[in-house]
């Protein structure tokens, strides 16, 4: 299986960004352990703080990869463009969030990704990404 994790804005700061919410592990540290744990998966990672770059990446991989694990971060709640990109592609998208967006501010309850996602995993910390990987394995 060929999967990619696409992370949106500010997720490059994982480990030092609001650690009480997002934990103290960097994404690089987490990604190394997850790659070792699932050697049968071809797993890539892409991060950008730029909305259009995220859309370009979704389009680039969206007709050939087996799955996209998308944490669009704040753009989840604002970006019609990212929502449209997810609707436009063929590769199934699993939406993930580290925090439980539904027990936070109201503006985080809205998602432009969710209507076209295969499924949604929120609130399990970095384990949300691992659960999304497992959802593609069978
Ligand atoms: C997040 C939740 C979003 O509301 C927030 O803007 C983020 C991270 C999460 O993974 O919990 O940047 O997507």
Automatic annotation (TrEMBL):
SUPFAM superfamilies: Type II 3-dehydroquinate dehydratase (SSF52304). Pfam families: DHquinase_II. It catalyses: 3-dehydroquinate = 3-dehydroshikimate + H2O. GO terms for molecular function: 3-dehydroquinate dehydratase activity. It is an enzyme of class 4 (lyase). The active site is at 22 (proton acceptor), 97 (proton donor). Its EC number is 4.2.1.10. Substrate binds at residues 71, 77, 84, 98-99, 108. Gene3D superfamilies: Dehydroquinase, class II. One of its GO terms (biological process) is quinate catabolic process. Keywords: Amino-acid biosynthesis, Aromatic amino acid biosynthesis, Lyase. Pathway: Metabolic intermediate biosynthesis; chorismate biosynthesis; chorismate from D-erythrose 4-phosphate and phosphoenolpyruvate: step 3/7. Transmembrane segments: none annotated. The record marks 17 as: Transition state stabilizer. PROSITE patterns: DEHYDROQUINASE_II. Belongs to the type-II 3-dehydroquinase family. HAMAP family: AroQ. Homododecamer. Catalyzes a trans-dehydration via an enolate intermediate. This is 3-dehydroquinate dehydratase.
């Amino acid at each position: 299986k060929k999967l990619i994790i696409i992370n949106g804005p500010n997720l490059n700061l994982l480990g030092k960004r609001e650690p009480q919410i997002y934990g103290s592990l960097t994404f690089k540290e987490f990604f190394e352990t997850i790659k070792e744990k699932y050697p049968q998966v071809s797993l890539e990672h892409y991060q950008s703080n730029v909305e259009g770059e995220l859309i370009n990446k979704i389009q680039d991989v969206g007709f050939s990869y087996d799955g996209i694990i998308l944490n669009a971060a704040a753009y989840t709640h604002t970006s019609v463009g990212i929502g449209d990109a997810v609707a436009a592609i063929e590769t199934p998208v699993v939406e993930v969030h580290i925090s439980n967006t539904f027990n936070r501010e109201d503006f985080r309850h809205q998602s432009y990704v969710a209507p076209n996602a295969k499924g949604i995993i929120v609130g399990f910390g970095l384990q949300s990404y691992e659960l999304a990987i497992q959802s593609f394995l069978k």
